[in-house]
Each structure stands twice: as structure tokens, then as C-alpha cells.
Design a protein that fits this description.
Layout lengths: L1 E7 L6 E8 L5 E6 L2 H16 L13 H11 L5 H19 L9 H10 L4 H20 L26 H10 L4 H10 L3 H5 L6 E2 L4 E4 L1 E6 L2 E6 L6 E4 L5 H8 L19 H16 L8 H12 L4 H8 L4 H7 L5 H22 L4 E2 L5 E2 L8
Antiparallel strand pairs: 1-2, 2-3, 4-5, 5-8, 6-7, 9-10
Helix pairs in contact: 2-3, 2-5, 3-5, 6-7, 6-10, 7-11, 12-13
């Protein structure tokens, strides 16, 4: 409810216009204006804000960014440990020094842009830090503590995607041979596309020798020196096939062992830590094999490349890698599917020629003088 009425000041008797309205929590807000048109404009702005959901209690916008950041963290019980740790680190190291004591209502787009422009680090890091601040402000908008997100419209540095490395079968074989008794690990990562944390979390019971499948249900990652177990990304377990040439190695790996044992144990029977694996044997195998600098995660990209080369569809690659959607797979590996366009046009051309050839008939003159004949085939 809103109203605008003429009033007279007590001292001078001057005419003023009193505008008042009630917010969603039934609190009254009012102001005096010299002109009626100004009072009406003020009411119109707040009435429109209420109808479109942008109305904000000014007192709530006095909350600091630090308090809102904690509220944002508390609201996300759905995060995994690694995601939470990463976001907490961004808040601690980048958000708090600049914005911690600033009131939400005082965060301006201009100030955020200046902060982004002055931030050191790679474009990807800058975008990640700004993204956390933007998410905090989005939470404030949802909670009606901000009318709009001041991060919207901020120009971010362009992130140039580095060209991915894809190993050939020959290079994978060379790396596997250089890895010695860990060769099965190299081959498994390079042909299944498992994330390292998913591989490390595999148990003996995860292997289905008959179907050549791995049941991927959990992931284990080292965070601040502690191995933390979590659900896989997208929170959906999946069944991943492995190639037949690993049959013997996989059978040896599960032979005579309990189902709850780690399939590829590290020290003390615990899950392998990626850092330890790289230091103990992986980096040395990379150097020995003659393959340029390589990380275990790049074997996941190699698996995608080898699958696409073998004719796998986008949906098949998505399911194998555990992406949330086929769109994500296409966005991540768009370069791998470029050849599909050439194949599509080649098949279209062949199908057209075959269709026209099948529809062609020899020329025949009928008794009525009508002619049926071969449809001209465009050779161009």
C-alpha cells in the first residue's frame, strides 16, 4: 500500500508532499518532498521494485560481505569437500582482504571492475575469484539483501584455452612400458578416462571381469595432507568399460582379494596419492618414454580422443567420462568432433549419388509416343 498526501511544515507552514509505503514485512517507509512529482517518482520506483522482486530493505544491505560470504558457504551443504575447500581458500585469500569489511550496499560495479583489473594472476584465476564474489552477491540478491548483483556487467580477462594434448596408442604403449609394473595403471587411465581420484577409490568389488566394467561410485582426493572420500562429480555413479587387452592384468589384480580392498593400493594398503605417484614413478616414466611433460589428468583427455577416433558418439563419451551433460562434453572436446563434419558431408555426397543412380532408368519410347527415360544425374 502506498500513499501521497499534502502536508504543511510546523514552523514555516510550507507545503510538502509526504510519500509513504509498506514493504513486504509491513514496515512503513516515508519521505517528504518539495514537489509532488518527486514524491510520486519515489513511490513508483519502490512499487515497481516490489512487483519485480527487487525491493530491498536498506538495513539488510548494511550487512558486510564477510557475513554474507559465510552465509553463502553455510547454504551449500551439497558441496563436496574439495569444492568447499577451494571456495573457502578464495574467500580467505582474495575476497576478505578487499571486501570483507565492506557493506553489501557499498559494493559497486565500478569498484569490482577496478579490483578485477588490478588482480594479479592468470585469466582463469581472476575469473574464478570474481566468480566467487559474484556467487556471494547472487546469494544476497536471493535473500533480498541486494536488489541487483554489482558483479553483473564486469568485464573479465579473456581466457585462452590451451590446446589439449592427446597421446597416440604408440605413445601410451611407450609410457606404459616405461612405467614397469605400474603399466596397467597407465593403460587403465588412458583407455577409460577415469579421474585420478576415481581411479584411486576403486575397490576389488568395483570390477566386473565378465562384462569388463568398472563401477565408479566414489572419489578420494588429498586435501591439506588428508585423503578425503566423496561422491563422484555430478553425484551419479557410472559403469565404465575397460578394453579386452587388460583382461589378464585385471584378473591378476583381483585374484584372491577381499571385495572391500583398494584395487590399486598405495603405501600401507591405502589409496594412491597423486602427488606420491608422480614423484615415485609417473614423472620418471614420462621422461623415460620420451613423451613431453605430461600429467595423469592428461590421460583422461587421451581416453576421450581414442574413443572418438574409434567412432564413439558424444553421448557415449559423456557417459564414459561422467560429464553432467553431452553439451559439456562437446564444449570440452569440440576439437575432437571437427572431423565428424567432414564425415557427414562425405556420407551425404555418397548417399545422394547412390539415390540418384538407383532412380535412373533407361530411355524407352512407348506406343503413345511418350518417353520415359533416365533422370539426368548431376555429376557436379
Amino acid at each position: 500500500m502506498a500513499s501521497l498526501r499534502k502536508v504543511f511544515t510546523e514552523r514555516s507552514g510550507a507545503v510538502r508532499w509526504e510519500a509513504r509505503y509498506y514493504d513486504q514485512e509491513h514496515r512503513q517507509h516515508k519521505r517528504l518532498f518539495r514537489r509532488k512529482v518527486d514524491g510520486q517518482q519515489w513511490l513508483d520506483e519502490h512499487t515497481a521494485a516490489r512487483w519485480n522482486g527487487a525491493e530491498v530493505d536498506p538495513r539488510k544491505s548494511r550487512r558486510t560481505v564477510a557475513v554474507e560470504a559465510q552465509a553463502w558457504l553455510d547454504a551449500h551443504g551439497d558441496w563436496g569437500v574439495s569444492t568447499r575447500t577451494r571456495n573457502e581458500g578464495v574467500i580467505r585469500n582474495h575476497i576478505m582482504p578487499r571486501w570483507g569489511k565492506v557493506q553489501l550496499g557499498q559494493v559497486s560495479t565500478e569498484a569490482v571492475q577496478a579490483w578485477v583489473n588490478a588482480m594479479a594472476g592468470a585469466p582463469g584465476t581472476v575469473r574464478k575469484n570474481e566468480g566467487v564474489l559474484s556467487s556471494i552477491c547472487d546469494h544476497a540478491v536471493t535473500m533480498r539483501r541486494l536488489g541487483v548483483n554489482p558483479c553483473k556487467g564486469v568485464v573479465l580477462p579473456r581466457q585462452v584455452k590451451e590446446q589439449r594434448r592427446y597421446l597416440s596408442d604408440v605413445e601410451v604403449q611407450a609410457l606404459a612400458v616405461a612405467a614397469g609394473d605400474r603399466s596397467v595403471i597407465v593403460r587403465l587411465l588412458a583407455y577409460t578416462g577415469l579421474r585420478f581420484g576415481e581411479f584411486a577409490a576403486l575397490k576389488v568389488g568395483s570390477v566386473d571381469l565378465g562384462r569388463r566394467r568398472l563401477l565408479v561410485e566414489q572419489s578420494v582426493t588429498e586435501i591439506n595432507g588428508v585423503m578425503v572420500w566423496s561422491d563422484v562429480k555430478t553425484h551419479q555413479r557410472r559403469s565404465v568399460p575397460y578394453p579386452g587387452f587388460l583382461d589378464s592384468a585385471m584378473a591378476d589384480q583381483v585374484q584372491g582379494r577381499r571385495r572391500d580392498e583398494i584395487l590399486f593400493p598405495g603405501r600401507g594398503g591405502n589409496p594412491i596419492r597423486e602427488g606420491n605417484a608422480r614423484r615415485d614413478w609417473f614423472d620418471r616414466a614420462v621422461a623415460t618414454s620420451g613423451v613431453d611433460y605430461l600429467t595423469p589428468h592428461e590421460l583422461r583427455h587421451t581416453a576421450a580422443s581414442l574413443a572418438v577416433r574409434s567412432g564413439a558418439s558424444v553421448l557415449a563419451v559423456q557417459r564414459m567420462l561422467g560429464h553432467a551433460s553431452a553439451a559439456m562434453t562437446l564444449d570440452t572436446y569440440a576439437d575432437l568432433f571437427d572431423d565428424d563434419l567432414d564425415q557427414v558431408m562425405a556420407k551425404v555426397t555418397a548417399a545422394r549419388a547412390e539415390s540418384l543412380e538407383a532412380d535412373s532408368r533407361p530411355t524407352v519410347k512407348t506406343q503413345d509416343g511418350e518417353v520415359t527415360g533416365q533422370i539426368g544425374v548431376d555429376k557436379g
